[in-house]
Specification:
mainly alpha
């Protein structure tokens, strides 16, 4: 009734009654596969599989969040790597959002501060963070406009200027470098 086929060293294809097929991440599910053998029919198999998948995904997300802060999109990507279904991803992430475990805006602000202090201006930083965090450029621009980053912005700008001046560069080269780093001169 239950057939397990290894696709590679990381993935297993589970077939139940030659009708239902599920592909799972082997290290993530392997200990729980024996529970699926208890299913008496297709509906019970699906319910049991969904329950195990949800619990494993929730445990994994909470473990990740216990280590460091992640954006919703970063967590979605990590769940997708583990072959978690879209419905389960949505349910787990929604539960974490409801409990306040995921704060995309706070994560974005922290990353913005860090990038500004490294010497990246807003024009370079926003697209970079949009790609990294999976938050839209518009949302990041709104966060940047609503928050006061003037100290970090000025510190980053002064850091770049000091670095270029040590090389004995002209004011034109300083302006060019600031623009290249995403600052408005």
């Amino acid at each position: 009734m239950l057939d397990l086929q290894e696709l590679n060293d990381k993935k297993i294809k589970i077939t139940y009654a030659d009708q239902i097929e599920k592909t799972v991440y082997k290290p993530f599910f392997y200990k729980h596969l024996r529970n699926l053998k208890q299913a008496k029919n297709s509906q019970e198999f699906l319910n049991l599989f969904d329950s195990i998948e949800y619990q494993r995904a929730l445990d994994y997300v909470l473990w990740l969040l216990g280590r460091t802060a992640y954006s919703t999109q970063q967590l979605r990507s990590k769940l997708k790597e583990k072959c978690i279904s879209q419905e389960t991803q949505d349910a787990v992430l929604q539960k974490c959002l409801n409990y306040g475990y995921i704060q995309d805006e706070d994560i974005a602000k922290a990353h913005m501060r860090r990038e500004l202090l490294k010497g990246y201006g807003p024009r370079l930083m926003i697209p970079k963070l949009s790609f990294k965090l999976g938050i839209s450029k518009e949302a990041l621009s709104e966060i940047f406009a609503s928050e006061d980053f003037s100290d970090e912005l000025e510190t980053g700008r002064q850091k770049i200027i000091a670095k270029i001046q040590r090389k004995g560069s002209s004011s034109y080269e300083i302006k060019a470098h600031l623009i290249k780093r995403g600052f408005d001169y």
